[in-house]
What does this fold into?
Amino acid sequence: MCEQPGVEDLDVKRRSCLEAARALEEARSGSAEDDFDKLASALDAAERAGVSKADIEVEARRQQQHREEATAARQLRREELTAALTSAAAGDDEEALSSALSDAGADLAGLKQDVPQLLASARQKLADLQAARCAKARREAAESTLCAAMEGEDVPVLAQAINEAMASGLGVQAAPANKRKAALEEVKKRAQSRQVMAQRLEATRARGNAKALAQAIEAAIRIGVDGPAIARAQ
It folds into this structure.
């Protein structure tokens, strides 16, 4: 009986047995004239090496069984990968789907029927999950920045935080921030008005017009000019 080759220095008899068995299987599965020519040549070589036809048949059956087992194992592997990918694509676990796609890529590539559609659908689902994760991270960062900006009094910083929040889909959170921004702008506007009025008050005092100075002092008090500026004018 033939033995499976396991070392490089196979003797002529073993090699002849294997080659003849391989040629026999190719001839049985095909119909080309070349297959039968190869079989005849291999059988001649095997006969010269002292290999019996029974040994060749046994080796051929062994090779056929090995091929069938390998084919069955590949089919089972593909079924398992397909099931795992289908399950992962139905969920929202980005890591699990990425792993399933990585595992299935080489084994399922090139298969027909529903596999190409499954792969395309799974890849799109993964892209959607990745985009959703990035959008969530952006929203969280924008919300954190907005909260910090609302606690401060820097209007340009708050305005930038509001714009980022709006771009991230945080319209509801941006509403109170806009009110805060408007309030800060009003405070700034009033401070500028008081500063201008204080300057006018000083200029009026310098001109020495008592009536105009009295009117300027009244207006300055009305808009909240600080006491020292008014005291100097009086």
Observations:
- Residues 53-90 form the longest helix (38 residues).
- Confidence is low (pLDDT under 50) at residues 1-10.
- Residues 136-233 form one domain.
